[in-house]
Design a protein that fits this description.
Length: about 230
């Protein structure tokens, strides 16, 4: 009997020890997950502040170029170039132009500047007016950065911009027939696109095979319409 009781207590303490170990392990995993989520939130917040700072700096540089440098430059080609830089740095006028119109304008400017044929398809009745100005600006900058990357690195002859619905989401694709990423990997421009996508809760993919061009896929849920639109629909 004593041996059985001794064995019983040994097994009981073994079970208690295992339970305590599992509880400690679960606590460790929980706090590790919490710490990782906190770090992710801090990284996202830092990226958002950095991009907001970049936009403010763009605006400041554009204003300085326009107000200080441009009046002192009398050579026409140089002054024209400064005007182009100023317009590119300033955020677009969302009060008077839709995001779809601005995307179309980006295509036209890319073709005019580089000679690259830029084709586009924007699905009918696809509006971005329910999105905040900040989120519209992030989408605009992502497409703009994609075109800048094509201009600088792709050696492409054709570009295609597609904006359409995909299931319950909106899908933006920018593809070219250039050299692709090759061995260079992602530069600062593509990193900026990733950061902006994270801020607006969009999924972004860079699909590339050497010599077969690059496709940038940006997928995000459409914003809900304002309450007045929902009520009128009922």
């Amino acid at each position: 009997m004593q041996e059985e009781a001794h064995l019983y207590f040994q097994l009981m303490w073994l079970y208690v020890g295992m339970i305590i170990f599992l509880m400690l392990l679960l606590c460790y995993l929980y706090f590790t997950k919490q710490r990782a989520q906190k770090n992710e939130r801090m990284t996202l917040a830092f990226s958002q502040h950095m991009i907001e700072g970049m936009e403010l700096e763009r605006h400041r540089i554009s204003r300085e170029l326009h107000d200080v440098i441009l009046p002192q430059v009398y050579e026409l080609p140089v002054s024209d170039q400064i005007r182009i830089i100023c317009k590119k740095l300033l955020p677009p006028d969302f009060d008077h132009l839709s995001l779809s119109d601005l995307f179309t304008d980006l295509c036209g400017k890319l073709s005019l500047k580089t000679g690259i044929q830029c084709n586009y398809f924007i699905e009918n009745d696809l509006f971005f007016t329910h999105m905040s100005m900040d989120n519209q600006l992030h989408l605009y900058r992502m497409v703009q950065e994609s075109f800048t990357n094509i201009d600088k690195h792709s050696k492409a002859k054709n570009v295609f911009l597609s904006i359409r619905r995909r299931d319950a989401n909106i899908l933006i694709c920018i593809s070219d027939d250039g050299i692709g990423l090759e061995n260079a990997g992602e530069g600062l421009g593509l990193m900026s696109i990733r950061q902006r996508a994270a801020i607006i809760d969009a999924k972004v993919d860079f699909i590339s095979q050497s010599g077969n061009g690059l496709m940038v896929r940006i997928e995000f849920p459409p914003p809900p319409p304002p309450p007045s639109v929902i009520q009128s629909g009922n």
